[in-house]
Amino acid sequence: MLNKFLFQFITFLCLFFGTWFLLSKIDFTGKVNFKKISKSNEQKLGNSVVDYLKKTNRTVYSDSAINIVNRIKDRICTSNHLDTSNIKIYIFYNEDINAYTLPGNIIVIYTGIIKFCKNPEELSSVIAHEIGHVEHRHIIKKLSKEIGISMLATLAGGNSSGEIIREVVQIISSTAFDRAMEREADSSAVRYMAKANIDPVHFADLLFRLSKKSDVPKNFEWVSTHPNTKERTAEILNLRKKAKYKIVPLMPDSTWEYLEKEIKEERYKSEN
Amino acid sequence: MDSFARNNFNTLHLDIEYKKTYMTIEQTTIYTPNEYESEKASNSYLMSVIAIMVGLPFPIINLVATFIFFLGNLKATKFVKWHCTQALLSQIFIVIMNGVGFSWTMSIMFGSNVISNRYLAYMITIVTFNIYEFIVTIRGAILTRKGKHDEWWIFGSLTNVIFGINK
Predict the structure, then answer these.
(1) Predicted TM-score (pTM) of this structure
(2) CA–CA separation, A84 vs A77, rounded Å?
(3) Where along chain A do its domains lie?
C-alpha cells in the first residue's frame, strides 16, 4: 500500500510541476500587446502629451541651455551605441525636482532637478536613468497597467480628449514605476554612465541628497512603488564597483555655470 | 468427451467452483455504515467546502475546519475516522499549494515582485487543481452520504497506509 501511495504521489508531483512548467511557457503578461501599439502611434501619444505640457508649463527656449543638456544626452547615447536623434529632451520651468519619460522616446526634465544637481555629472545620471526607462519601454508598460491596453491603443491612435491626456500626464508625472523597473533603469544608468566615462558615484550622490530631502518612512516602505532611495544608492555603489571606466570631464565648469544662469533667468516663450 | 478432455474439464470446473466460492466469501464481508455514520463521514468533506466560502483568500481556514472536525471524531467508528482522515490529508496538500500562491500574490501586491508568466502559470495550475479537488470533495460527500466508500487517488492510499489497511 505504501508503494501504491508513493507511486501516486510521484505521479501527482510530475503532473503538477509539468502543468506549471508548460503553462509558464505561454506569454500571459501581454508583452506581445506592446507591439500592437506601433512606434508612430507611440510618437503621436508622446507629442500629444508634450503639446499639453507646453500649454500648462513654460518651456525653456534658451538654445544654449538646450544644447548643453543635449550634449550630455549625445555623449551617453553615442558611447552606448544608442540612436541619439531618436531621443528628444524637453525642459520645462517647474520647481519640482522631477524628470520623466513619455511615450515616443521623449524625456521631460524640470528646471527644479537641474537646479538641484551640483554638477553636470549628476544631471547626466538623471538623463541616463531616463534613457534606461526609454530603452526598456517602461512607460508603455506602466501606462498599459494603469489605464489598460485598449485605452492606450485608443489614445495612441489619436482619439484623445484633453481630459484623458490630463490623466495620462498625472499618471506619468506623479506615480512611480514599480521597483523592478526602477532597479532596471538604475542598473542601465550605471552601465551607460560607465561606458560614457562618467563616474556613476554622482548618481549615488544625487540619490543620497534626494533621500535626505524626502523619503518614505520606514513603516510605509512596503506600500511605496519606489524603492527606498538609500537602498538604491547602496545598489548603485555596488554596481559601480563592477563597472570599468575612466573619468573624462563632461564639460568645463564655465559651461555648467552658464546653464545654471540660463535656467535661473527663466527666459521663456509663452504658448498662450 | 475423451479421457484427456474429461480430466482437464473436471479440473477446470473445480477451479471455477473454487473461485466462485472465494468471490462469494469476499462479498459477504463488505462493511455497510449506518445512517449516522454516513452523515458524519459526509460532513467531514462538507467542512472544507463550507470553509471555502468563508476562508477565501485565506487558505488556512479550510484546514482548520477539517482538523477540528477530525479531532471531534477521534472516537467515532472506523468508517467515519477513515473519511475524516482522507478529507484532512487532502486539505493539507491544498493548503500548502494555495499558501505558496497566496504569499506569492502578497509579495507582488506589497513587495518588489512583479506579475510574471511563471506566477500566472502557477495560479492557473492551482486554480485547476482546486476546482478538481472541489468536485472530488462534493462527489465524496454525496457518495459517503449514501453509505458508499469513496477512496481517492493519493489520499485514499495514504489513509490506508495510516490505518494499516493492505489491499
Answers:
(1) 0.55
(2) 5
(3) 29-266
Contact at 8 Å (CB) between B51 and B62? Answer: yes
Give the separation between CA B158 and CA A2, rounded to whole angstroms. Answer: 7
Would you give the end-to-end CA distance of chain B in angstroms?
42
Sign of the dihedral defined by the CA atoms of residues B93, B95, B96, B97, in that order = positive
| B157:A5 CB<8 A | yes
- Segment A107-159, tens digit of pLDDT: 999 999 999 999 999 999 999 999 999 998 888 877 776 665 556 656 665 55
What percent helix, strand, coil does chain A show, rounded to 5? 65, 5, 30
Task: Report the gap between the CA of A12 and the closest CA in chain B (Å).
Answer: 8
Residues of B in contact with A20 (CB under 8 A): 118, 121-122, 125
Q: Determine, for residues B121 and A23 on separate chains, whether the beta-carbon distance falls below 8 Å.
A: yes
Max CA separation in chain B (angstroms): 88
- Kindly report the nearest CA distance between residue B133 and chain A, in angstroms: 13
Question: Residues A103, A43: contact at Cβ < 8 Å?
Answer: yes
Q: How far apart are CA A240 and CA B16, in angstroms?
A: 85
Pick from A101, A64, A65, A68: nearest CA to A86: A101
End-to-end CA distance of chain A: 85
pLDDT in tens, A50-65: 988 888 888 888 888 8
Query: Chain B partners of A1 at a C-beta cutoff of 8 Å?
Result: 157, 160-161, 165-167
